[in-house]
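ping. complex inputs:
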Amino acid sequence: MEGKGNLILVLENVTVFFGGLAALSGVSFGAVRGEITALIGPNGSGKTTALNVISGLKKPNRGEVLLEGQRITGMSPHEICARGVGRTFQNLQLFQQMSVLENVKVGLHSRTRTGFLRAMARWPDMKREEKWVHEKAMAALKAVGLAEKAHWIAGSLPYGDRKRLEIARAMVFDPVILLLDEPAAGLNIAETEKLGEIFLSLRQNGTSMVLVEHDMNLVMGISDRVVVLHYGSKIAEGKPQEVRRDPKVIEAYLGGELPHA
Amino acid sequence: MGDQLLQFVLSGLTTGSIYALVALGFCIIHNATGIVNFTQVDFITLGGMVMYTLFRQVGLQQWIAFPLAVAAVGLVGAMVQRLAIRPARSKEVIHLIFITIGISIVLRGGIKQIWGKASMALPPLSGEEPLRFLGATVLPQSIWIFLISVAVVVGLHLFFTRTTTGKAMRATASNPRAASLMGIDSNKMVMVSFLLSGALGAVAGILIVPITTLAYDVGIMIGLKGFAGAILGGYGSFLGAIVGGLGLGVLESLGAGIVSSDYKDAIAFVILIVVLFFKPSGILGKGESTRV
Amino acid sequence: MARRIQLMILGLLAILVAAIPLVVTNPYYLNVLNIVGLNSLIVVGLNLLIGYAGQISLGHAAFYGLGAYTSGILTVTYGWSPWLGLGASLLLSGIVAYIVGRPTLKLKGHYLVMATLGFNVILNIVMVRWEEMTGGPSGLAGIPPLRILSFSFDTDLKNYYLIWFFALMAVGASINLVDSRVGRALKAIHGSELAANTLGVNTPLYKAAVFVISAVTASLAGSLYAHYFGFISPRTFDIFFSIELVTMVIVGGMGNLWGNIFGAAFLTPLPQVLHFLEEYKDIVYGAILALMLMFVPEGIGGVISKAYTRRKMRNLLGEGT
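pong. complex structure:
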């Protein structure tokens, strides 16, 4: 792997068992700082499991996860988040009853401090903090194009908006790395392009990303590197164009061609 | 000391059988609906009460009154489902559980109205003379409790494995969608589960009341402990209910005899909490997904 | 509802509460209002637990009782000063709640319900059986009233102001809490624990904290009860009272603070009101509970807040077009 010292995220030999089934088998790869690393593979290849391991939702049976050189394997999800890992979910985990703005504000939890006692007593510091939270949240909403719907109830948003809300919520705290689980699923071409723009602008600001996706246009269009999983093992890794031509990869996708980029 | 131990174990198995029956009642409804049915405690009381009325007031023979009382309470169970659970607007577990709490309060109030607050006595099924067994004394009622409990368990097993309705219930419990696609009416299955749990509660009540006494709230402690037994054995599992119920009875009896009889009632709940804290899946360790 | 508006309502309520004794002087009614106040205090804490952390407890009568008995025993048997006893009982309840809460809150759904219920039963049995300490089934008597210097809270009226002071403070603290980073985190946990975790919310800690807060408010109510009535017995703190408390929360609407206070205000005097239906008290109470849950599961507060939200959305969407 080039630029080893520049790896913001490393998975070392990660193995995850569900009962008797190995969802991930000795998977190792790295994400370079400031790059968009795509994680692709047919359904069931272990991509979401990999994200779950990184974000701390699943403890691997074997292997390590390193964030900026520090071991985060086995840490609880909120601790990992505090270290700068943000993530979105494949099947959306929005807070349906809360407003759009409130959803995003929760994303700043790890960067704020007001606790129970201070909140109950309405400590003066809190006002300043709330102002900051409000501004950052609105900025994130603006970046994804949802600012006008800030006071809508999240559950009432159309699908495309919900996906963007989840992204806003995950990126609002300026994570060092953002884990995206099929952000383009269910979106049309125009919406997907918009998404790509958002990601590219995040990358420009220095945010690294791990992008799990099925939409090959998006993957080929914006990723710097691609890692391919198949039945829980890594079968290819490299630049997007290289991976596209890799025979192992082509065979994995039903022995046919990869969809055109 | 050995004699004493045997005594404790035997008496523990007696109450344990009752707990097992109650645990099965909870188990069946849980598998069908996912809820804890608080009216179970009143089914126990009702069993004793109806039996009392049929036997003492109507003057039927015990052997006729018994099954009639069981059937009557089973019917009450079915009515609870039909009138309170089915029409409920929300199917959320927590709402349904509290509906059963409300109905339980209503049932208890009704029982108080009909039979009064005073305690009553129900005679045992055969004699009162204790029998000797390997150095311990056993009430004849205890033997009836064992025998009838075994019969009930065997009957239930046959019901769930041999009859169409029983198999349909198991299907609904394990995969409600597929079951309804195959034409099984899930509402009816739920009603049957309430009927069965009513019947089980009634059997438990009728059997134990001659040993304890009969009052409008006798079912509460027995019911809650039966639930503790279900959790101990592994909630949701048939075998777990039996193992847990018997186990709880024995542990309770040993605990009361050896440690302290003052806090006897607390033992079951301490066990409940310990199990929930350390191994919520219970002795038999089956997960939530296991059905009857 | 916006925080400002809620605080204004609180202010109005405070004025109302302060003024009521000018009109209502009958000590019997004041007594009922005092119990409403105590129940409201408990319910505010319970509301946070049930409505925001999404955890149901059927054992809060245990903390009510723990507060009452600790205060009672410390003052009667050991001669402690009542305020010191109150502080000690708050601390004890908090610690017990933390110890019990951490493992319990890991449990799901009805397991949690039964664990709290079991806890309540155990504590209740201890209250009855540990006669040397608690006075057994006949209870503990001779509990002195609370005092500030030479002013003794020894009448219904004086306790009315004391109790409602605490109750309204609790409501205010709760309003503040909900509209804060903590409140958002709690709502997030309720909405999706998974997402809340990955967004940095230390869910186990927050759940435990809310459990402790709800236990401590219940304990505070218990101590106030003990010093008010001067006499406590185990029957007040059984699982049926826990059920009554949760009923108040459900009838008012889970997570709906004002609804819950309404629930407390409505349901507390109900057994008294149904007194003339003394015979059928239980049946009516149970029927109300069951029927509410069958047909209005979101509670009265829920109905009102849904209508309010619908209007708000209509306005927002209307503005867009």
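The longest helix of chain B spans residues 2-33.
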